[in-house]
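Researcher: Final request for today, and then I'll write up notes for the group meeting. The sequence and the SMILES for nicotinamide-adenine-dinucleotide follow.
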Amino acid sequence: MAIRFDGRVAIVTGAGNGLGRAHALGLAARGAKVVVNDFGGARDGTGGSMTAAETVVEEIKKAGGTAMADGADVSNYEQVQAMVAKATKEWGSVDLMVANAGILRDKSFGKMELSDFQKVIDVHLAGTFYCCKAVWDGMKERNYGRIVLTTSSSGMFGNFGQANYGAAKAGIVGLMNVLAQEGRKSDIRVNTVSPTAATRMTEELLPPQALALMKPEAITPAVLYMLGENAPTRTILGAGAGSFAQIKIIETEGVNLPEDQWTPEAIEAHIGEIGDISKAQALEGAFQQTQKYVAQAAARLGIKM
Ligand SMILES: NC(=O)c1ccc[n+]([C@@H]2O[C@H](COP(=O)([O-])OP(=O)(O)OC[C@H]3O[C@@H](n4cnc5c(N)ncnc54)[C@H](O)[C@@H]3O)[C@@H](O)[C@H]2O)c1
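Model: Predicted protein-nicotinamide-adenine-dinucleotide complex:
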């Protein structure tokens, strides 16, 4: 079945360039009315203009789609609320939210200024929170919502020089984990894309041959899938250069030790078994971990629960 968005209203943040632009064009081509948000600044988050967003709106309109430009800075909650209010007034609802806007302030941790940390947290983590918060009540009222957040391999796996960005991007996954649970009964599904693509963010990092394989358009199918009627929830999809993979946070089976072995030495002695991923599981929620440990302790002690 074709995945379509006719009658749906979408906001894509940071859609004046790179990945957001590709997502906005992809959504509009499949029938969504799209708010093309971009504050139009430089890669480090300075400056600002409406030109980037307006150019993408023109592109969408030329292709026969429906779009409006918005210049909200996602790190400003009042501006984000005003953007959602404007879209709701104009088009009746916001059904789909793609929190994509982002900046970089890379420096090794020793050289990183607190302001570089704060700014990146404000745009990525707080900005993503604000975008979700501003559409949440409307989605709950209408019993429908699809939200896609944007993480990074830097947050999932680590990357030199990105303590600020990696922390923000890992925080976004934490936000997804909770929102997916809280949204479940209102059919609000919350997922995350972990992209890698040639944009102004990455143009200095890779050789031209690699960049040529990494078109921004290669990320959009993963995002559109996670915005569809049949989207999963609480899924992290990696995407880049035509590869699509799922990132899972797993926990090993572990060991349950008797109280006389609750020592660091016992942990050292068992670390191979503790780290053995052969029976690892992707836990569905925080409480599942508690239940697992209690069950393991009960089994060790022969207690029926
Ligand atoms: N390109 C990659 O390989 C890659 C890898 C991992 C994650 N990401 C993430 O993907 C997203 C898009 O990145 P991109 O590569 O397309 O970068 P990009 O710089 O090409 O585009 C980001 C856009 O966000 C806008 N923006 C920045 N701060 C904003 C704010 N406060 N409010 C509104 N708009 C703002 C910028 O003006 C820009 O147009 C980001 O969240 C980025 O961290 C990208």
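Model: Residues 9-247 form a domain with the Rossmann fold fold (CATH 3.40.50.720). The mean pLDDT is 97.
Researcher: Thanks, that's everything.
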